[in-house]
# Entry
Amino acid sequence: MRHVKLPLYLLAFSIFALPAAAQSLVPDVEPYVNQYITEATGDYSPQWWNALSSELVLALTSSTVQDEQVALQNIIFFAEMHGKRLNLKPAVPHLLSLYRDGATEGTRIMALAALSAIGSHTAMSELREEVAYEASPRVKKLTVAALAEYYR
# Structure
């Protein structure tokens, strides 16, 4: 019986884990972030900006810390540079979660920068309520600065 369990685990893993890892957002299409970097024309359709928004939000759910950091950097950049063309509000719940429970202080600060760049009223209201209970002096100071900038 012991030898039967291992193949069952492997079968279950291959059914559930491998297909998800093998799928891409849009098959045979270069990621929109890469298109922006290589083409950099700025003459993109509203559909292209919507697809980029979706790609950025989806990238936040990455399983690795390195990919998560890249996703945060991309959200900060695109929200600052092209915020009016993008809809990044679906990323706010995940960003708030990273701000509250991020593995490192750096991740929490990057999540704060992304929230600040997006400028969601809901997110800023939640940060305003939570800042008094923030344990990290550095995160607290940066949160107060982000809130001051948003509410000025």
Notes: The chain is about 70% helix and 0% strand. The helical segments are 2-22, 32-39, 46-59, 65-82, 92-101, 105-118, 121-130, 137-151.
